[in-house]
Amino acid sequence: KRGIRHDVLNAKNHEREAEIVAGAGQKGAVTIATNMAGRGTDIKLGEGVEELGGLAVIGTERHESRRIDDQLRGRSGRQGDKGDSRFYLSLQDELMIRFGSERLQKMMSRLGLDDSTPIESKMVSRAVESAQKRVEGNNFDARKRILEYDEVLRKQREIIYNERNSIIDEEDSSQVVDAMLRSTLQRSINYYINTADDEPEYQPFIDYINDIFLQEGDITEDDIKGKDAEDIFEVVWAKIEAAYQSQKDILEEQMNEFERMILLRSIDSHWTDHID
Asked: What region holds the SecA family profile domain (predicted)?
């Protein structure tokens, strides 16, 4: 607005970046830079600049991380050169709004200071440093939780990959299918039969079994009524095993490949849903 000539260093214009950095230390040069731009580069002072006090770094706000502030400060006074740095903050800056601006605003009100009155005191510096420590502590806790989650996910991934590999490497997938069928049957008995306080309602269990494993009418209430859970398992398993063997006899060699494809697709689908 005031017509001050300047260059903008924003880590986007790579072709001009070296040229801008090279000229940033010249007498009268004004360079506006983002946090990320020109990191790790020394700005060499031009003729007569050191006599005037060296490179002056002006920060428009404090970063959540004190390390970033130190990097900005470190642009001046490199390699023993003279330099100075100064930060200008507002109580409306994000860091101050999140941590500490309310206390400072109350203090300004008590002292009768308006929003445009500049404040320079150790209390402000301590408030900023305290806010940065709280943010860094929160970020550390967040990273720690992410690492813990990653470790849980790593163990789960290991289990899933081992399961997939066993299916791929197994010549006969019927053992895997057999174990899954037995496990599913046992869980359904536990859910529909064993959890009943009084006489269980058999029809929901029968509908589930016929829908998942068999065909309508293959299992009836007369087949299982009055039997305990162990006997029900044996009765139902005999029918499931017979139906399974019948399908194997029909498909013969294709059955194994078909089972492997279905198992892998099922594992991949559920694993994708899980990590999403």
From this structure: 1-120
